[in-house]
Amino acid sequence: MLESKQAKLVTILLVEDNPADAELTQEGLKRAKVLNRLHLVEDGEEAMAFLHREGRYADAPRPDLVFLDLNLPKIDGREVLSMVKADPELEHIPIVVLTSSDADVDVMRAYKAKANCYVKKPVLFQEFLATIKVIDDFWLSVVKLPHDPA
Amino acid sequence: MRRLAALSIRWKVTLASMIASVTVLAVACAVFFAHELGRARVNLGRSLQVRADTIGLVSAASILFDDPKAAGEILEASRVDPGIVTAAIYALDGRPFATYRRRASEENAPVVALAADTMEGRFVGDRRLVTRPIDFKGKRVGFVALESDLADLSDVKSGFMLAALLVLALCIGIGWLLALQLQRLVTRPILALVESARTISRDRDYSVRVVVRGGDEIGVLARSFNEMLEQVEERDVELEAARGTLEHRVAARTRELQLEIGERCQVQATLVRQTEELTRSNADLEQFAYVASHDLQEPLRIVASYTQLLAETHDGQLGPDAEKYVRYAVDGALRMQNLISDLLAYARVARAPAPPQTVASGDLLSRALDNLQLTIEESGARVTHDELPMVRCNSSQLVQLFQNLVGNAIKFHGERSPKIHVEAVCRDGETEFSVRDNGIGFDSKYAAKIFVIFQRLHARGKYSGTGIGLAVCKKIVEHHGGRIWVESRVGQGSTFFFTIPQAAPDREAKEEVRHVGVEAS
What we know:
The complex is a heterodimer of chains A (150) and B (521). Chain A is of the alpha/beta class. Chain A has a single domain (2-142), classed as Rossmann fold. Chain A has six helices and five strands. Chain A has a five-stranded parallel sheet, sandwiched between helices. In chain A, helix 2 crosses helix 6 and helix 3 (44-52) packs parallel to helix 4. Chain B is an alpha+beta fold and 521 residues long. Chain B folds into four domains: 2-173, PAS domain (Beta-Lactamase, 2-Layer Sandwich); 209-279; 294-351; 353-521, Histidine kinase-like ATPase, C-terminal domain (Heat Shock Protein 90, 2-Layer Sandwich). Helix content of chain B is 57%, strand content 15%. Chain B contains eleven helices and twelve strands. In chain B, the strands form three sheets. Chain B has a five-stranded antiparallel sheet. In chain B, strands 7-9-10-12-11 form a five-stranded mixed sheet. A two-stranded antiparallel sheet of chain B has the order 6-8. In chain B, helix 5 (217-293) packs antiparallel against helix 7. The radius of gyration of chain B is 71 Å and the shape is rod-shaped. Chain B starts with a helix and ends in a 20-residue tail after the last strand. At the A-B interface, helix 2, helix 5 and helix 6 of A face helix 5, helix 6 and helix 7 of B.
C-alpha cells in the first residue's frame, strides 16, 4: 500500500560510526520494504563532505532524509545538526536523530538545533524494527518531502 | 525690683540690716524730737508766765497810783527778753494802761488782747499769748498780757535736727561697717558653697569639699552637700571601674571575635573549597550519568539486538537449549538497562533539589496513580486514601515516592486482589504518611534492609525489579529532612510510613523536572 504511493526511490544518508548499529538500521530498512538507496558515512566530517558534495562525494546525490547519530568521531552529530540547519542549501533536509542516548539534555539540545525528530533506539530487536518501520512510514510515505530541484 | 533680685546675697544681707537699723533709728529720733519739742513748749509757757507775774507784781503800784509811765518803763524792761514781741497792762475795766512793742514794725499789730479765759496762756499761730491778773494785797487791780514769738522753739528745733542728722549719719556709717562685717557670718559659708558648686560644675572635680562652719542650717546644707559629693564621687569611682572593666571586656570580646572571625574565614575557605570539590564531583556525576544513559546502553542494545537477530536468522535450527540461552542473554541485557535507568533515577534525587513548593499531597498521589494506571488496571488493585494535607515538598519527587510505594504494594500482592490505603496525620511539626497494603508482607527483621540499594528479599524469577525503588524512596524522604520506615508481618501486609517536615528547610536550586524511573513499572 505504501510502496504504491512512494514510486520514487528514496535516498537516505545514515551517519553512524558503529558498523553493528549501521547494519541493524540497514536490516530494519530492508525489512520495512522501503524502496531506498542507503548511503553510509562514519563520522561528522564525512557527513558534511557528502552533503556538500566535496572530495570523493562530488557526485553524491542530495539525500531525502538523514539518520543522524549524536556521538560521532571528528565532528559530533550535534555540530552536524547545527551546521546543516544553518546552511540555506541544506536546512530543508529532514534530520531524524537516531541514537542510544535518552539523556534529557541531548533531547532538548537536538530539538533546539532544529532536529526534525528525536528517536531513541529500543533495546529489543523487534522493537527496533518496529521503530524503523514507523519512521519510514512517516517520513517516506505519510509526509510530503521537499523536492530538491538539483 | 529685678535689680534687687540680681544683687549678690552679700549686698542683700547688708542692705537688709541697714534698712532695719536706719528705720529704727529714724523712729527713735522722731519720738525723741517730739518729746523735746513738747518740753520746750512747756518751758516757754512757764517762763512767760513767770515774767508776766513778775511784771504784774512790779506794776501793781503804778496801776494803783495811776502812773502809766512807770508801767510803760516796767514793760520796757521786757526788752531784755528778745522773745517778747508785744506786752500790755490792762486796767480792770479792760482799758489798756500801758503797751510795749518790740519793734516799730509791730506798731500796726494789735497789742495782745486781754483774754481772761487764757490765764494759762495759749499758742496763736507762731505766737504764744499769756494773760495774768495783777493783784495787790489780795485785791485785783488789773491784768498783764504778754505775746512771745517762738524763736526759741525754732532754735531748739533746728538744733535738734542738726544733732539728729549728725547722729543718723554717724549711725549709718557705723551700721554700714558693722553690717558689712557681720553679713559675712551668714554669707561666707553660702558663698563658699556656691564657689564649690561652681568649681565642681566647671572642673567636674568631685573631690572638692566645702569647709563646714557651725551647726546652723547652712552648716547642715554644707554637710549634706559634702555627703552628696561623696556619693557622687563614689559613684564616679564605681563608674570608672565599671568602664575599665567594660573596656577590658570589650577588648577581650574583640579578641575573641577576631579569633572567631579568623576561624570562620577558615571554615568559609574550607566550605568554598568543598563546594568547588562538590561542584566538580557533581560535574563528574553528570558526566557519569550521561555515559550511563548513552554509552552503556549502546553496547547493551547491540548485544540484545544481535542475539535476537541471530536467533531469528537461525529460526528452527537452534536447539531448545540455545533458544533458552538467547532468552537469558536478552533478559540480562534488559535488566541491565533497567538497572542503569533506576541507578540514574537514584542519583538524580540528590542532584535535583527543586525549591520546595506547598502543594496538596492528595494531588500528588493522584498524579502517581495516573502514572500507575496500567499496573492498577492489570492487577485490579483498589487504592483508597483519606483527606491528605498540604505539604512543602519537591512535588515531582513526592509523586515518585507515592508511585514507588504504591507500585511496590501492588507488585507484592498476595492471593487477594491488592487493596492499598494512603493516609496522613500531622504531629510534632511534621506530616506522617502511611501506605498500607494487604500484600505478602515480610519478616520485620528485614525492615531496615529493604531500603538499602540493590537489596532484594525475593528471587528475581518471582518478582522483577532492580532493588533500587525503595532506596530511591529513602533518598527522597531524607532529602526532605524526613524519615521512612516500615511495619510488616509475613502474610499480613505491610505499612510504609514516611514523614515530611511541615517547614522543610529551604534549598536553593533551580527547578529541574526530571522523570525518575520506577521500580514498580
